[in-house]
Each structure stands twice: as structure tokens, then as C-alpha cells.
């Protein structure tokens, strides 16, 4: 019996994953189900069904027309790894890293994809892989296997791991447009949000994809700016990259920061923190992780510069809405 059920379950379209329906859709569907048996015999039931359908259509259209024009960012809780979701004011979407994939837990399958479906996302317009370590790109495998992706960006690092090879295969198989980015590149078509790549330079990822200072230091560092609010994503860069990144001067300042390398003491040196001067600093961490991240002195350093430090191991996912002038921050746990 188990084998038979497993066989049926393996057939194409044996199951379909759909986004979570809204309350209005459920209410309309329930009303139409109740009215359905009466439609052939009761004129009032037909009028009520038409009225219900028109109300649903009208609310749907106006909800879309009046939707929020905010920049929305969610730093997902993927344990000791990184993953963030961005929805731009025009509705386009971006995923930055995907958390870890292991024999025991796949962040893509068990965190990222369920979240995207919950959010009603059926296509990710841009995926950014900061660098090739498994705790950042592992979950992207399931994403590319199961969801349409428009563009894939990374720094061109050459790394011989199963995860990195599988991602390259999926990019080719599924016709995803690949872009290698480096310091100075602009990110266009983001719904009025300006994107700028600040790192890596050729010293950290050369033309052949080699990383003389390690994969972490070849991370893609980039900013997104909506109105007067700038957000900075720093991958896992460490202190060796400080001179190259600090050369950006005032363009490095950001109201919201994804803290580099999970708050490691090898990153977030005093000049780096001072240059960014974030109001909110988000650290993506696994509870009780073996690396002892974050380093207490790094947390204290950000706090001393006036930053509100949020740790995903304490707060769960962190959602930030940016309207162009200010930020609204909400955490899932506390």
C-alpha cells in the first residue's frame, strides 16, 4: 500500500503548491459554494452570486491599484546562514542568498520556498548569491529547481562544491540570465530603487574567478536606495576588504545594514562601523552556533554607534518597510 501511494504521489501534478488564499477569497468561495445548489432554481441566488463575484473583483482590482509603494525587506531566520527577501515598489522581487543545505535540513525547501509561497510570489526576478559558501547558496538550489527565476547575480567566484556546480547547471538548464557583477556596477530596473555594487574589486575576485583573499572577501557588497533611505548588504566580507570598501566614502552610509559575516570579530572593524553608521543592524545567526557568533565586542560596537542591533537567533525574521523617508521595523518573535 505504501509503495502504491508513493507511486501515485510521484506522478506529475499529483500535488500542487499554491499561495495561501486571502480571507476575502475564502469568504467569496464559501458564499459561492453555498449559493451553488440554489442557482438553477432561485433567481435571488443568481443575483447574489453575481453581486458577490463583482464585489470580489472590485476589491481585488482596487487592492492592487492602491497597493503599498514601499520597499519591503525581510531578513529570514535560516539559522547560521544568510537569506533575505526584497519586494520593490513596482512588485518586482529579489532573493539575496538562501541559507544552508545539508543532509538534515534544506533552508530553501523548508524556509525560503514556504515563505515565498506565503507571500504569493511565483517568480523571483533577481537572485543575488553573495559568495559560494554553502550557508549562503545552499538553499538557492531548491529555489531554482522549483520556481521561475529571471536573473542570477554573483561575483564570478570559481568554487568546486556540489552546491556551486548544481547552481551552474540549473542556471543553464532553466534559462536563467546570468550576470557577473563587480564594484562600480549599477543595478537597474528595480522599481525606482537605485542599486549599486560596492565590492568586489578585481583584487578580491580576479578575471578567472579566483579569490586570493578567500571566498568571504570576494562577497558581493551592494546597496539599495529608496528615496533618502539606503540599505547595505555585506555578505561575509572581513577586515581585509576595509580599504577597498571604505574608499566609497559617503556612499557607504546606510540607515539599514545586514551585518557582515554574522557579527564575527574578523569583520565590522571600528572605521567600517563608523563609516556606515547604521540606525538598524541585522545579524543573521543560528542559536548557539559553533562559531560563537556574534562576537560580544561587535554587538557592543554597533550599539555604541547608536545602532539598534537585531539578531535573528533572538528575534526571528526581521521585516523592514521603507517608504522613501523612514523605516518601519517589525520582528517575528520579540
From the helix content, strand content and strand pairing, which structural class follows? alpha/beta
Radius of gyration: 23 Å
CATH fold-type name of the largest domain: Metallo-beta-lactamase, Chain A
For the sheet with most strands, the description reads: 8 strands, mixed
Q: What is the count of structural domains? A: 2
The portion of residues assigned to helices is 25-40%
Name of the top-level CATH class of the largest domain: Alpha Beta
Overview of this protein structure:
This protein is of the alpha/beta class and 334 residues long. It folds into 2 domains: 16-65; 71-331, Ribonuclease Z/Hydroxyacylglutathione hydrolase-like (Metallo-beta-lactamase, Chain A, 4-Layer Sandwich). The chain is 31% helix and 22% strand. The protein contains 11 helices and 15 strands. It has helices spanning 2-10, 23-35, 43-65, 107-118, 134-137, 140-146, 162-173, 242-246, 270-276, 296-304, 312-315, and strands spanning 71-75, 83-87, 93-98, 123-128, 148-154, 177-180, 186-187, 194-199, 221-226, 229-233, 256-258, 280-283, 308-311, 318-322, 327-331. The strands form 2 sheets. It has an 8-stranded mixed beta sheet. The protein has a 7-stranded mixed beta sheet with strand order 7-8-9-10-11-12-13. It is globular, with a radius of gyration of 23 Å. It starts with a helix and ends with a strand. The mean pLDDT is 91.
Amino acid at each position: 500500500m505504501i509503495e502504491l501511494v508513493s507511486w501515485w504521489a510521484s506522478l506529475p501534478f499529483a500535488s500542487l503548491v499554491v499561495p495561501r488564499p486571502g480571507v476575502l477569497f475564502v469568504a467569496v468561495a464559501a458564499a459561492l459554494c453555498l449559493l451553488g445548489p440554489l442557482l438553477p432554481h432561485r433567481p435571488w441566488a443568481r443575483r447574489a452570486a453575481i453581486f458577490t463575484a463583482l464585489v470580489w473583483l472590485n476589491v481585488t482590482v482596487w487592492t492592487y491599484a492602491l497597493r503599498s509603494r514601499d520597499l519591503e525587506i525581510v531578513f529570514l531566520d535560516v539559522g547560521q546562514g544568510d537569506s533575505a527577501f526584497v519586494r520593490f515598489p513596482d512588485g518586482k522581487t529579489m532573493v539575496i542568498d538562501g541559507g544552508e543545505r545539508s543532509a538534515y535540513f534544506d533552508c530553501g525547501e523548508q524556509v525560503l520556498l514556504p515563505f515565498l509561497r506565503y507571500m504569493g510570489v511565483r517568480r523571483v526576478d533577481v537572485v543575488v548569491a553573495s559568495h559560494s559558501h554553502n550557508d549562503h547558496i545552499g538553499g538557492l538550489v531548491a529555489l531554482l529547481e522549483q520556481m521561475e527565476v529571471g536573473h542570477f547575480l554573483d561575483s564570478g567566484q570559481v568554487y568546486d562544491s556540489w552546491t556551486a556546480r548544481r547552481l551552474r547547471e540549473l542556471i543553464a538548464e532553466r534559462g536563467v540570465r546570468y550576470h557577473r557583477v563587480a564594484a562600480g556596477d549599477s543595478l537597474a530596473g528595480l522599481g525606482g530603487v537605485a542599486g549599486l555594487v560596492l565590492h568586489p574589486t578585481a583584487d578580491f575576485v580576479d578575471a578567472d574567478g579566483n579569490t586570493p583573499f578567500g571566498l568571504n572577501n570576494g562577497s558581493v557588497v551592494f546597496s539599495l536606495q529608496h528615496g533618502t533611505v539606503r540599505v547595505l548588504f555585506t555578505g561575509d566580507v572581513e577586515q581585509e576588504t576595509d580599504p577597498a570598501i571604505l574608499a566609497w566614502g559617503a556612499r557607504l552610509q546606510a540607515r539599514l545594514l545586514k551585518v557582515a559575516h554574522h557579527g564575527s570579530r574578523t569583520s565590522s572593524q571600528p572605521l567600517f562601523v563608523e563609516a556606515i553608521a547604521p540606525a538598524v543592524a541585522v545579524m543573521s545567526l543560528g542559536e548557539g552556533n559553533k562559531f560563537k557568533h556574534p562576537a560580544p565586542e561587535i554587538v557592543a560596537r554597533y550599539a555604541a554607534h547608536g545602532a539598534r542591533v537585531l539578531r535573528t537567533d533572538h528575534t526571528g525574521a526581521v521585516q523592514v518597510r521603507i517608504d522613501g523617508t523612514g523605516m518601519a521595523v517589525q520582528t517575528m518573535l520579540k
